[in-house]
Amino acid sequence: MWIYEKKLQYPVRVGKCDVRMARYLMEQYGGADGELAAALRYMNQRYAIPDKVIGVLTDISTEEFAHLEMIATMIYKLTKDATIDQLEAAGLGPNYATRDHALFYQNAAGVPWTATYIQAKGDPLADLYEDIAAEEKARATYQWLIDMTDDVDLQDSLKFLREREIVHALRFKESVQILIEERDKKRVF
User: Gene3D superfamilies, from UniProt (predicted)?
Assistant: First the structure.
């Protein structure tokens, strides 16, 4: 049974209102390599993967939803006290005009999230290699986001997320090894 703990996976603190940074964080909220795309990709792929590694996809998928919640909290905290002028200056005027301070699944450039971000080949190894690449791209994006802010509180939460991407990539690499070993056992020479 799935249980939701009514707290963030890791504390999210921000030191100041920073609408520019909130806009950049939207990349991890609704971008191609963001948390929503990852969560849905892994949840979808789990139905075509051998039982030996299905749990890895399920575990990481649900954790990605926890990361999505953290990113949403960061964006909210960075913008909650922002004026309309600050939102417009950061390029979020159109977002405000459409939905006030409400979040919307879009990337940093304002492009709406699309299901085309979800990769699923149906071949377990191909999917796992795609997943490793997705985690590495997310790790790189988190590093760039860390580099773009001087807010040490925000950096702390972003570093946590970056490290979790590394762990996910390692778990997917372990899953690849399990499937390769299983495949090699079945081969008749």
Answer: 1.20.1260.10
CA atoms of 155 and 149, how far apart (whole Å): 7
Question: In terms of pTM, does the model score above 0.90?
Answer: yes
Residues 27, 158: Cα–Cα separation, whole Å: 13
Q: How far is 186 from 169, CA to CA, in rounded Å?
A: 26
The ranges assigned to domains in the chain are 19-186
pLDDT higher than 80, residue 2: no
Helices (H), 80-123: 84-89, 93-99
> Which H or E run includes 169?
helix 152-186
Classify domain 19-186 by CATH architecture.
Up-down Bundle (1.20)
Nearby residues of 180 by Cβ (< 8 Å), 6 or more positions away: 125
